[in-house]
Amino acid sequence: MKLYSSVVSSNSRRVRVVAAALERQLGRPLGDGLEIVPIDLASPADRERLTAVNPNTKVPVLVDGDFMLWESNAINAYLCAKAPGQTLLPTEPRELAEVNRWLFWTTAHLSVHVGGLNFERFVKGLIKLGGPDPATVAHHERLFHQFAKVAEAHLAQHAWLANDRLSLADYGLVATLMPAKTAQLPLDAYQRIQALVARIHDRPEWAASAS
Q1: Which run of H or of E encompasses 168?
Q2: 147 with 110: CB under 8 angstroms?
Q3: CA 42 vs CA 39, 94, 101, 127: distances in Å
Q4: Per the confidence metrics, is the pTM higher than 0.85?
Q5: Are residues 55 and 106 located together in one domain of the fold?
Q6: Do 19 and 30 meet the contact criterion of CB atoms below 8 Å apart?
Q7: Alpha-carbon distance 78 to 62, whole Å?
Q8: How many Å apart are CA 162 and CA 159, to the nearest integer?
Q9: 97 in the same domain as 67
Q10: Of 35, 36, 58, 34, which Cα lies nearest the Cα of 46?
Q11: Per-residue pLDDT reduced to its tens digit, 46-81
């Protein structure tokens, strides 16, 4: 299998950390191994290579023989299905629904505003589009707080996001928060979210997924 991935992409990191975690659980590589295909998103040639496997021109993309799959959460579910005995994505309907609830929540709500703040405070300057727009920053910060409070309150009662054990949901949230510094995310009020991030960052698979 090949994974088209960028080191600056939180969505790519979401897949790489899960792949590393699954390999730790299995005690061996996934399938015949997972080859990382580095993509420089600033390179027109790499963008062209990416378009050949994903019409959205985004990373990550998994290529498994003649099967091409994009969207990080879909890729992670597929990798779990190929890892017998894995514990990151349950099969019992309610437990599976709990994991999916948080995966969809992160994608639909929190990541939109993390990405928006990172664009305003970091990406715009990088690509010479000027400084952050105060109204847009205020909009994203307001909604970031609205949704971060939901996870913070949940983590006051639970060690992990879903089913009281480590799952794809936790890796998904922590990967989403990867640009915390460049986006200047207002995380000071969310000690439990920060604690979850620290626990994931301390795990061997996080370090293994850095490149």
Answers
A1: helix 168-176
A2: yes
A3: 9, 42, 34, 10
A4: yes
A5: no
A6: yes
A7: 10
A8: 9
A9: no
A10: 58
A11: 999 999 999 999 999 999 999 999 999 999 999 999
